[in-house]
């Protein structure tokens, strides 16, 4: 298995396939991450809000200690949670995450959402989730993105992260950021799958020299577990006739077709599975190519159907509207 990479503006190379850590139970995480590295993953996609970073870090460090990989061969991505957007909280947030991960630096630090939530001190609750402790409604904070981003840039200067980027941002906000960024965002990570293709966003962002990572490449599959009504009401991608026919043509699985379709758009992926055979299968999306006619057939499946939407989830925040 040869890992392929996307070039970043810093000169670093980001693996095209990484391992996603959302919803990995902390009790499973050390072994899962160890196995992922053992089967060949070189990018680990983490976040404070996944509430498992200490356990993810254990897995990473076990793999390094056992000689499976050197730190410099790994690409560790993590994300700034929304309660730390104020300029005075950005560094303390990453320092806390590095402590939990047991690492000196990460390779990519992303602003997780374009959504400033009221600060919750680390010693009061960590990680704090979406709400103030004891509350169940969102409280926004006055934390402008240009100040947050300047603090993110200082983390690169301090050597705490090699690259910085954003997640769940739209073109309007990115256009504004490009007017003041001293370090341009290196990466945009957004929900992308055949049912939510965001073609204009992807193309424009790539034209700016910003790399793109797809999350939730299997569409509804990941969101059944969250109780999403949207996910329950739609045909699973793995059962979609177009996806199944293309899978049969190449003697591949539908999951591989979903991942390969992203790679054909020069978009990186971070699939998650606890099962070692599936981990390997997902990595093997690097091993083959899909004909343009099949890419075009999948392009017809777009429904603009978003599953990770804080508007339909409990938060009731229309950030994508
Ligand atoms: P995913 O699309 O990777 O799907 C995961 C689901 O698919 C799991 O139920 C898993 O069991 C199943 N699966 C995995 N491989 C399979 C295979 N080969 N065959 C059949 N089923 C398979 O879902 P995801 O976890 O939502 O997204 C991937 C990663 O993206 C996350 O773990 C996280 O790291 C990242 N992410 C980021 C954000 C963000 O806001 N930036 C949001 C969601 C996810």
| Beta-strand percent range | 5-15%
Q: Return residue spans where pLDDT drops below 50 for at least 5 consecutive residues.
A: none
Rg, alpha carbons:
19 Å
The CATH topology of the domain at 12-191, please?
TIM Barrel
Note the total helix count. Answer: 11
Order of helices and strands: EEEHEHEHEHEHEHEHHHEHH
Termini separation: 41 Å
Percent helix, as a range, is 25-40%
CATH architecture of the domain at 12-191: Alpha-Beta Barrel
Largest sheet: 8 strands, parallel
- In CATH, the homologous superfamily of the domain at 12-191 goes by the name NADP-dependent oxidoreductase domain
Helix/strand/pairing category: alpha/beta
CATH class of the domain at 12-191: Alpha Beta
**Hetero compounds:** nicotinamide-adenine-dinucleotide
Task: Tell me the strand order in the biggest sheet.
Answer: 3-4-5-6-7-8-9-10
Overall average pLDDT: 96
Shape: globular
